[in-house]
Amino acid sequence: SVLDDYETQLRERNAVDMDDLCGKALTVLEQNPQIAARYRDRWRYLLVDEYQDTNAVQYRLMRELLDAEQNVCVVGDDDQSIYGFRGADVRLIRRFESDFPGSTVVKLVANYRSSSEIVGVANRVIADAPGRYRKRLTSKRGKVAPVHWKFAYSEDAEADFVATRMHRLHSAGQSYGNMAVLVRVTAAAEQLRDDLAQRQIPCRASSGAGEGVSVMTLHQSKGLEFPYVFLAGADDGMMPHYFAVKQGEDAIEEERRLFYVGVTRAERELCITCSARRGDFDCRPSRFITDVAAGKHLVQVN
Questions:
Q1: How far is CA 56 from CA 26, 89, 104, in A?
Q2: Residues 6+ apart with CB under 8 A from 153
């Protein structure tokens, strides 16, 4: 098979791929207690960042490296666990206190990135997620502008709306480089780049008009921030994705966290858009929008 051939090539080159770095290290430590003891003596303290993205192998590796004192500090946010498809298990961060009795949890709830309006939407989106650490963000930026959402009648109308608002921001002195469009899947990002380019909006390269608008998937946006964010294609079946809906509640809840990540990429202004028709299919707004709109956190625009 292709996999067998690949692993043979790795062995012949005395090489490992990225996924093997943890797995093979874990095998060595589990099968050689004396080697594990040497590394436990070498490192007295262990710090793990982005703990919400930990998978089972990484978790076991961490446990192998801890000595009897169990001196470990982890940093993470279960509300931003979005890599289940890579093996990340949100339950690992949520059970940290039971795994390490006597540990202290410090909640960092001050948000220095986003406006009060954006933080309000983020809090409302994630509030209904089951099993999460209960926390409520507070904005240190204060009020800036309402969070808008647009329910367009077609994909073209949605693209027109986004382009018009971008032109308006640019005319008011904002660089296109301060703007980003976030979507659920790569194909939608490619389509939107084409749609915006047709409407004289520069995307990915420098131009006479300044830096281009960033168009990317929600997963690609993790860790980034932009003054002006458009969360586009927010239809049920896209956010949450159709495949996640088929998989059940756990997958839907990861989609909720992905939506939350998208919302919290925005610093000053956020606009969420969806379409009544996409291709040959009728659509309705994402259930996440419905949840937020019910709490009067969104302002619908015509």
A1: 11, 7, 23
A2: 275, 276, 277
